[in-house]
Structure formats: structure tokens, C-alpha cells
Amino acid sequence: MKELNPLLHSQLRLAIMSILMNVEEADFVYLKEKTESTAGNLSVQLDKLLSAGYISVEKGMAGKRPRTICSVTPAGRNAFEEYVDALKSYLNL
């Protein structure tokens, strides 16, 4: 059996990647609402995905408010697809 990617096996990181796989980009507030996570925990998990090269993060301003936009990278898309394939091998699908 294939080994499950430990970086993606975390519940919150898997949720973040699942969301980003289905949209072109998502802002921090959207991800926070969808994952029902705290801002601090979401920020830490985004940093881990960014460090791995799985997502890109663009910081800017929307009026006077900071805005963080996240999107999945080709490497992240590949890692997620490999994770899903590995998971399927455990489920015999």
C-alpha cells in the first residue's frame, strides 16, 4: 500500500487543500468560515502548506483591511491527487 502523506493527513490541512482544489483561489476569511477553525490555527496550517510548496499566499489590502488570498500550486495539486490515490488503495476502491 502507498503511504499517506503526513502533511496532508492532518484534518485541517486536508480540509484547506480540499477547498482549494475546487476553487481558483480563496481568501483567509472564507477558509476560516468553511473550516470552522480559529484564525491562529488556520494561519499556522497555511504556513505549513506554504512551506511545503503546496499553496501560494498573496497578501494585500482590501481598502484599509489586510487580505490574504490562497491558491493551490501545481505541486500541491499533485500531492493532493497522490494522497487521494493512496487513500483509495486503503479502501480498495
TrEMBL record:
InterPro entries the record matches: WH-like_DNA-bd_sf (IPR036388), WH_DNA-bd_dom (IPR027395), WH_DNA-bd_sf (IPR036390)
Residue span(s) of domain Winged helix DNA-binding: 12-91
Pfam families, A to Z: HTH_34
PANTHER family, alphabetized: BSL7504 PROTEIN (PTHR37318)
Protein name (Swiss-Prot/TrEMBL): Transcriptional regulator
